[in-house]
Amino acid sequence: MIVPRPYNLIAELTYRCPLRCAYCSNPLDYAGVREGLDAKEWARVFRQAAELGVLHVGLTGGEPCVREDLAEIVAAAAEAELYIHLVTAGTHLDADGLDALVDAGLRSVQLSLQDVEPEPADRLAGGAFFERKLAFAAWVRARDLPLTLNVVLHRGNLERTRDAVELAARLGAHRVELANVQLHGWALRNREALLPGRAQLEAASQAVREARRDHPKLQIVFVLPDHFSDRPKPCMGGWGRKNAVVAPDGLVLPCHGARALPLEFWSAREHAFGVCWSDAPGMNAYRGETWMRDPCRTCPERERDFGGCRCQAFALAGDAAEADPACALAPAHDVVLAARRRADAAGEAPGLVYRGDR
User: Which pTM value belongs to this model?
Assistant: First the structure.
């Protein structure tokens, strides 16, 4: 098998975070994963990734800004000549700290917002963070850094989709990601409370079309939830094809959620990054097409969607080699249809289970 080169490295520097978002993408057992890589080890990973062809690194978490050595990590990525993008909640970095990261080589920032109004945003985050986030956005733009605003949409805030675009425009963002919640990890645990109904999605889609007309210079990305697409998306551009994730303990993965699968992945603490990428059994488990079963094996879309999301297949169908249940042709698609029907029934949403709750 010819192993493709990765272009993007997602560096999960830590799973620590002051927020308690009920749709957190970190694994349910995140508390048991320790930070195994110090700044020097991250520097080695960055050098080896660049040698393999990686061009871009996203520093994320958890909340990467809780790490006291973040400026050193940024400098190491800059020395490896990577484009450095920070994904943050904007709660743990003051203006001087941001200056230190810019001086070290930071190139762009993505800021997450839980909502566009203070009360629901702070309720979902688990603390009074909203105003601090807006101040952080202003600091980013004052330093002429490109700013992406990421707003996770769900049943509780879809009616404020247009408001999210207007806020992004006021903050001077270059891009706004209106990401309908994807049901993995904590979000799957909260599916009944987060999954919107079809009418909500249609209204939000119309709001996005109007916003794109009114804000032609603002890049507006609107991502439908997998549960409503009927066609699977190529997870992370395809399993082990373009994107590599390095978890806080050094485990090299094809996506954020893959450590939950019963597969063997290798750590960048024990092996060179390139070896982890090309040779680990888990990384090769779903590359190519030989692993596919019908209907994926004979589907004309298999070279485009690569069978969809393996983690979603495992979570919803109990087998990572099954067709992604988001696909209308998947044997387990009824699981998705049943969830849609419950969401369309529009009953009172159950309470949320927050990150860290038992």
Answer: 0.94
